[in-house]
Design goal:
about 375 residues; Enolase-like, domain 1; TIM Barrel; 2 domains; 7-stranded parallel beta sheet; 3-stranded antiparallel beta sheet; 13 helices; globular
């Protein structure tokens, strides 16, 4: 069995509302859908993350195609290593780690379909019957945040996520409203996207923890490593690392330096599904937990990563997802976490998603008309950063 063609299809799918943080202002997801076809007629689907610039990811995918076409799809990890070495993508790992996972997913999808097995079976089998996901609340007035929380609770969510790092006084009121709405047992996760200094992080978290914060994601910038180490050592709130896990080497370095209690990352940091699984197991051996990260995604990535979570022993409750924020998707069946926090065991071979051709065409055309959903608000260009 050989791959005879690769197609790369950029799509733009809107959010129901703008995602706002100290780092991004974004109105939807732009990703590149990868379609791989074999000489046996099997088709595999994958999804590459756009990052800062989808055109650069498209260019990377086109440059990677000669390493894949004509090859056995079961050689995905060898292909990745060859790309890093002979293709010198080790010199541009950040872009490579956003691009290659789309190809990697498509190859694994083919392998699962060829074997008649769901993806998790090809990665050693499941060690859990479900994975749990969070409800992403957007910043707003306390009343607005409380309304969002009630919506999440009505769907059964018990882990709630909120961005901070813009205005601590306003954010304290949002967190207060969130805690009062969800009660004492549900979990609150916060993400500052590195907006604070070490001193600001310690002072702000001391105030925020009056509302029992489960963990704070990336309270300070990732470099030097001592920033995160100091916050973790001096703060009562558990710390999660995200920025700074950009490559497998970065993730390994942060884990061995014990910069956090929880490591929040995905195949788009490590370059492949297998690398994500390996590093997650390494974290387990270090006594550390992992939380699956989302850059904003569609159903292909969500389901591919869910298979890997089922194979891991150290997964937190409340993994990241944006399915409930999407106006639509390109897959035929609505993925479970769109309307509920728990996702069980997929039973279809491969990744297990079917693509809706009409929606794929519609959102590719939307990309052609309006381009990428940029991670920034053009109105903010030239204004103060911090």
């Amino acid at each position: 069995m050989k791959v005879i063609s690769l197609e790369f299809i950029p799509v733009s799918v809107p959010y129901t509302h703008r995602e706002v943080s100290s780092l991004v202002n974004r109105d939807g997801v732009t990703d590149v859908i990868v379609k791989a076809t074999t000489d046996t007629g099997l088709v595999g689907w994958g999804e590459s993350c756009s990052g800062a610039d989808v055109k650069s990811v498209l260019g990377a995918l086109e440059a990677m195609a000669p390493f894949v076409v004509g090859r056995d799809p079961w050689q995905s990890e060898f292909i990745r290593q060859e790309l890093w070495h002979r293709g010198i993508w080790s010199w541009r790992q950040h872009t490579a780690c956003f691009a290659f996972p789309g190809i990697d997913m498509a190859l694994w999808d083919i392998c699962g379909k060829s074997a008649g097995l769901p993806l998790y079976q090809l990665f050693g089998g499941k060690v859990r019957e479900r994975a749990n996901y969070f409800f992403y609340c957007s910043q707003g007035t306390p009343e607005d945040v409380a309304g969002q929380a009630r919506n999440g609770m009505s769907k059964g969510f018990h882990v709630f996520y909120l961005k901070v790092g813009l205005n601590i006084d306003a954010e304290l009121e949002m967190v207060r409203a969130l805690r009062e709405t969800i009660g004492p047992k549900a979990k609150i996760r916060l993400d500052a996207n590195g907006a604070w200094s070490v001193n600001e992080a310690l002072r702000n978290l001391a105030r925020l923890d009056a509302y029992q914060i489960d963990f704070i994601e990336q309270p300070v910038v990732q470099d030097p490593l001592e920033n995160m180490q100091e916050v973790r050592q001096r703060c009562n709130v558990a710390v999660s690392a995200n920025e700074g896990l950009w490559t497998p080497e970065d993730a390994f370095r942060q884990m061995t330096a014990r910069t956090a209690d929880v490591f929040c990352f995905s195949p788009y940091f490590t370059g492949s599904l297998a690398q994500f699984q390996r590093l997650s197991w390494f974290a387990h051996l270090q006594g550390l937990d992992i939380c699956r990260h989302t850059h904003g995604e569609l159903g292909i990535t969500a389901q591919a990563c869910h298979h890997i979570l089922l194979t891991l022993p150290n997964v937190v409750e409340g993994n990241q997802q944006t399915a409930h924020m999407m106006t639509d998707d390109i897959v035929v069946e609505t993925i479970p976490i769109t309307n509920a926090p728990d996702w069980g065991v997929p039973d279809k071979p491969g990744i297990g998603v079917e693509i809706n051709p009409a929606k794929l065409g519609r959102y590719h055309e939307l990309y052609r008309q309006r381009g990428q959903f940029q991670p920034y608000d053009p109105a903010l260009l030239g204004t103060e950063l911090y």
